[in-house]
Design goal:
Helix content is 49%, strand content 16%. With 196 residues, it is an alpha/beta fold. It folds into 2 domains: 39 residues, 3-Layer(aba) Sandwich (YefM-like fold); 135 residues, 5'-nuclease (Rossmann fold, 3-Layer(aba) Sandwich), CATH 3.40.50. The radius of gyration is 20 Å and the shape is globular. The protein starts with a strand and ends in an 8-residue tail after the last helix. 24% of the residues are buried.
Amino acid sequence: MKTSTISEFKAHISENLRAVRAGQHILILDRSTAIAEVSPVSARLRARIACHGARRAVKGVLDSSAVLRFLLNREPLLRVAESWTWVGASELLFVECHRVLERVRFTNELTSEQYQESLAWLNAFLDGVVLVPIGSSVIRRASRPYPVALKTLDAIHLATLETLSEEDDPTEWEFLTTDKSLGKAAQLLRFGVPGL
């Protein structure tokens, strides 16, 4: 991997971008601190852009089911969130994910080592997620009728998405869930639901 200061990178931008296009990774330094990495677009992203065209920036909200499916079963749906410009979730996700990990530890579905690794991964992952408090506006929204029957906690997740996106066009937001009813409700409210 090549390293470059900010000023060097800017002074030789064309040369550096040709190197990146050829597969080189460049680590950008501010004095001696690494601040960014410029790398080639992955083949996966290139294929997605070719198939679907370049997407505008999308913000997203996670449901606990998507995080837990990745954490416990390594189902790749959670990778969708990597393309979001902003990632949020109800603080309910924090509780649900920790409770499920505790439950599978006590039922011996995870060894102590697997539990510790899963817990460390979850906490590191959640450091990059904005956890939204379950305030009165979320509770009021979750209490109203939805276009499909929803369980209480599912309604709280969806109400969190609605509250966060109320100033935006719903199509600028995605909701990541593996629950079909919850995903259908989000789609009927015009939110994107990848994988459903």
